[in-house]
Amino acid sequence: MDTSPYEAFAEAAADGIAFDGLSATTSDGQVEVTTPETSVTAPVSAPRGGLAPVEEYITDWFFWHQHAPQAEDRWAFLRWLESAEERSVPDRYEALGDGHTRSWGQLAVTVTLGEGGERRYDLRHEADAGTPAAELTGHDDPREMRDIVEADERGRYRPLKTAPTLVDGWVFHDIDAATLLEAIEYCYPATVANWHREREGELDISHWRETMERQTGIYGVIQTWDRGEGHDHVEWVAEACCADSQCLKRREWQYDGETDLSTDGGDGAFPCREPCSVVVSAARQWTKLEGEQSRTYEFELTPSEKEQLEALVDAVADGRAAEIREADLYDGANRYRTRFLRAKLFDDEGNLCGVPTSPEE
Amino acid sequence: MATLVIAAHGSHLNPGSSSPTYAHADTIRDVGGFDAVRETFWKEEPHFREVLRTVDDDEVYVVPLFISEGYFTEEVIPRELRLEEWDPEMWDSDGTDASQATLTAADTGQTVHYCGPVGTHEAMSDVIVRRAESVTGDDEVGEGFGVAVVGHGTERNENSAKAIKYHADRIRDRDRFEEVKALFMDEDPEVDDVTEFFESEDSEALRASGRSHGRRPCEDIVVVPLFVADGYHTQEDIPEDMGLTDDYREGWATPETVDGHRIWYSGAVGTEPLMADVILERAADAGAPVGDALDRVREVTGGAALAGD
Ligand code: SF4
Q1: Tell me: the pLDDT tens digits for B42-68?
Q2: At the topology level of CATH, where does A205-290 sit?
Q3: CA–CA dist B75, B26 (Å, integer)
Q4: Residue nearest to atom 5 of ligand 1 (CA)
């Protein structure tokens, strides 16, 4: 690490180097370098002057082999961040000069070039793209990401890290690769590892059935929800929990190895390889609720009241209820409208239209 | 070198559930001893199922931040980590003796040293005592004080009561406090009646038996719940059950007077910084090359004067 890029490069060239369009070998104390643009040679003992024309290639090699974390998945992720597999070194260096940005969930990561080809990173919420770093709350300790991700903008705890409710207004500016990776790991745990496995064709997906069959204890009951009568219930779970509006992971698990769900899995950059603990907990509750038999109830509603009930369900399901303006009486889920409906239709026990839930009551 | 993975329950509802896990992980990170320290949860991410793939090392020490041996430590964690050769017999424990087992994770091929839970490690007794010191603000606390170690009871897991009794016995044997009791939330002796177990008659009987060195009635009682994190049980149930407050939302004083006793209620033992030491001890017992990290952790967490046994 304490050697200069040139010396480290010249030393490594003894074993031959082929990387990012450059190739290098040594013979008779000379290092010979070929790039798509040119060929140069220099003495191994003092390589700097002779290799100066291919400086970008040298510092690029140096960063990727000496600075960047070498763990395969994280290395691949850092390469992906700067589109390294698609662009030549000179192209990339030009782009990195201005900063090259990619998004990861709700994160925007901008790569720039630092001293001697070292990559520097800027990590922030994508909604803050374009805001000067000085106007955002600055962080440099990746552990601080834990506080950032804990609650949504209304202060509610976020049990699902990949819910699209990450708050904005913060930045990790001018950080190195290790800090970046650690911060991302706290924000979206294991997403880099699973993304990489998927790219390598090695993502180990556990579908709904096998995941639920694995459950024991209070979750063991979920298995009874699969009754060999189709998988509509799982379609509903996926639509309820895994849509992009609820979770940024791209759902890759299906009902089972043979039966795909028709519900869209989403477009997220990183895959979801099995039903998560939030979905498992919810499924336990639904297993209990869905064990009930349906009954016929009779309610008298005006057409507008029926539509209002539908609007209410929509507003809550879309997380819109809190945004409806106080005096927006056109919206069925408006608070006054809803209170009026309750005043008119509920009896003292809270029964809709006075109809008891259980007739025996 | 190796990676330490701390496995905890976590919560979908309460952000405070995972804070002790992060705090202890940070303490251990800061003193070194491992290449990396990772947290993993049952209800949060990274999940037990996915944590190992985020770890670079081939050698991993997994320490469950759980109080007792039972469902989570014997069944859930090993299954979710894909330690397929696991069998609870490998711990050769009757409820409080789990040490470690060396296994291979089926999805990553890593060697996993699967350690017993922190709650049954003998150093946990020191953490309970430290909790008594910190809640009373007195490093010498003992004389005139009783200690109640509180747990769930056997309803869900018989080993849970074993762990509570194990530490109560160990602390009692040190003869530092006037009286030490194991109390439970859902069975006798119940925490609801905490003051009854520290009445002066008790102490007088003890004195008459010649077992005491001039013990006096325990006007002061330190109550330490053996829980990993503060939550519903430690912040709502137990304080109300003991009569510290009628409504947990209104809080209570420390100490709070109940039936003529001063009750020093400490909150979950798992939030005590010295817990980091127990985690490290667990890993070291399993052969982790922690070097002098144990000494350094004790310096930071105030455990330098650990009594040990
Ligand atoms: S199961 Fe669904 S909600 Fe859970 S992480 Fe996967 S995609 Fe997201």
Answers
A1: 999 999 999 999 999 999 999 999 999
A2: Alpha-Beta Plaits (3.30.70)
A3: 27
A4: A276
